[in-house]
Amino acid sequence: MWGKEDKTSAADDAAAGLHGMATGTYPFLGRMDPADFTRLLSRAEIALGTALLLPFVPSLPAGAALTGFAGGLLGLYLKTPGMRREGSLRPSELAISKDIWLPGIGLGLVLEELGHR
């Protein structure tokens, strides 16, 4: 989908496709420009990944952010046609399995931090 570009510099058609998929599940995103949405998503992914890697970022906010982000991805999975088999939670062949692991990791970080308090 991205070729030599990435989300930070996505072509108009790639940004429109990503934005269109997101607005199908989250209509309020329709007010954003597709290129702006794609750049913001890219920056959020980079910031979240950085927070998870830096040892001085506490587990609670990093895990909460990951859980929230993963919740958004799971919403896409549940509401986007073609990502699940009809009438079932079973994924179609297009589903991305990492989206199921992310909330578990995020919740694990949150619970670990809360358990130390």
TrEMBL record:
<keyword id="KW-1133">Transmembrane helix</keyword>
<keyword id="KW-0812">Transmembrane</keyword>
<protein>
    <recommendedName>
        <fullName>DoxX-like protein</fullName>
    </recommendedName>
</protein>
<feature type="transmembrane region" description="Helical">
    <location>
        <begin position="60"/>
        <end position="78"/>
    </location>
</feature>
<keyword id="KW-0472">Membrane</keyword>
